[in-house]
Model the fold of this input.
Amino acid sequence: MALPAQVSSLRDATLADGSRVDVDLAGGTVLAVRPAQPVGDPRAALGAGELDLAGYVLLPAAADPHAHLDKARSWTAIRPPMGDLVTAITSWVGYAAVMSEDDVAERARAQALAMLARGTTAIRTHVDIRRGDDPTLNTRALVRVRDELAPLVDLELVALAGPEVPDASIEAALDAGVDLVGGAPHLALEPHADLARLLAIAERRGVGVDLHVDESLDGPVTLDAFALAVRGWSSNVSAGHCCRLGTLETSERQRIIAEVLASDVGVIANPITNLYLQGWQHPTSTPRGLTPVRELVDAGVRFAAGADNVRDPFNPLGRGDALETAMLLVVAGHLTVAEAYAAVSSGAREVMRLPLAGPTAGAAADLLAVRGADLAEVVADAPADRLVFRAGRLVARTTTSLELAPSSFAPSSFAPSSFEASSSEPTPVEALR
Done:
């Protein structure tokens, strides 16, 4: 069944607060949210462009502020050993030396579409600036995918430059279409010098910055220097991972969080990858390596969370599903369910400086409807049945069914169940345009 080109009204949806509403859409914006008139009421029959969302929870669409689409889905090809960050980097560098632009584009496209099908309509992805004589291979692949998927998902590209990458290669990536400067200064022999170098490039080019910051349990601390260096900047600035912050003494941690807040640096947690990569050297009482999520949220820091790596040397598993990320923020970061979903939706959009979206009058009509009774059930079960809207257009729909064998407590024949089953991969982009 073809997806409708544009949707004018979503009927009888359940919001996160439990209220049931009808939502009117026009021009990519939410026009109005009003008490529901159930479609079962003969006075409220569906009209053209209207969808019945009875039994679905309607939420702001997810946004992912920290992905690595150029690495995604490479685990099977690489078969790397499991291990820490250094092990993962070594495995990836070996594969990156032989992969092609088409390989990068194919894996990135597949992962972006899978994320779209699960409810993510905006993705910020880091793109490796390569070593050697073709530094922009990954950049060209991701720019191609960004252009192809523009009708469906907003892709923002960050130049991920290691300490060994020369300034000219970063400049070339920016010239080729990358949006932000990124890097990992904590991996440099002189972390503060590399931090200053990357910030100087961003300032010279007038672009924002999203750095991998202090991605370790011990070692250098650069987050405070980062925050002080960008104080007063008008361009958007964010810091990913910040694992080291969670291992500092309370007074030092609080001092640095105050600096981050004063400079309005957004902090992006990446729970699944940090849980996987950190703590390998500590077999007893293994630390989990997350940034201090609870303290950052309580302090009022712009906070978001990303799915990060998916099935690559940095994380062998993961679905790139915002509901998976939200669940981990609850169980590993001690956020409430509502706070956790905010971190992967409205909080992520704030960190990415995207307009407010969700079932609120005047907001962008980027929406996610998931079959379920309430937000906690949706985050717990991560049901496959979902409808995804971008700018008021239905861009992805997944439906599932399940049959149960008869038992003494069940009907004598197979019957559909409301229990959610796994779904297949999303429909190719060409079929959704």
About this structure: The radius of gyration is 22 Å.
